Amino acid sequence: MSGGAVVILFCALTAGIGFVFLCVSFLLRGVAAKRERDCTVHTVATVVDNVYSSYDSDAPRTWHAVFEYTAGGRSFRKGSAYGTTKPQFEVGQRVAIRYNPDRPDEYLVEEQRTGRALQRVFLAVGAGLLALGLALFLLRGAGKL
Fold first, then answer.
1. Is 80 helix (H, G, I), strand (E, B) or coil?
2. Could you give the 3-state DSSP secondary structure of residue 46?
3. Which backbone phi and psi does 78 adopt, to 5 degrees?
């Protein structure tokens, strides 16, 4: 494989990985927007536990708050989908949440911003890699690489 082909392959891979990261970012934002749109009923949940767990033995362990709340006359106990390196909430703490009146087991914690931060990281990494791949390709085309 010639040097020019290697550069083009590197540009394509870099831009392609960036595009995938951007797609994941938009997917995460879409899921969050749907949840924000659907979860309209305000209530207060109580943190009943903080679970220290890992989904994968190779992944770092994280803390997940467990919330208990009442919706439509039923009681729900749900763990947070977002883990943190330290417990974000204390057991017994009361937290403002919103739940979906059509699916009361679907909720969002109003002060939990972990999902937004993750979406922004994917957006920044994706945009950076895509821009780098395109810039390298254009530099190669202009004979500067």
1. coil
2. strand
3. -130, 140
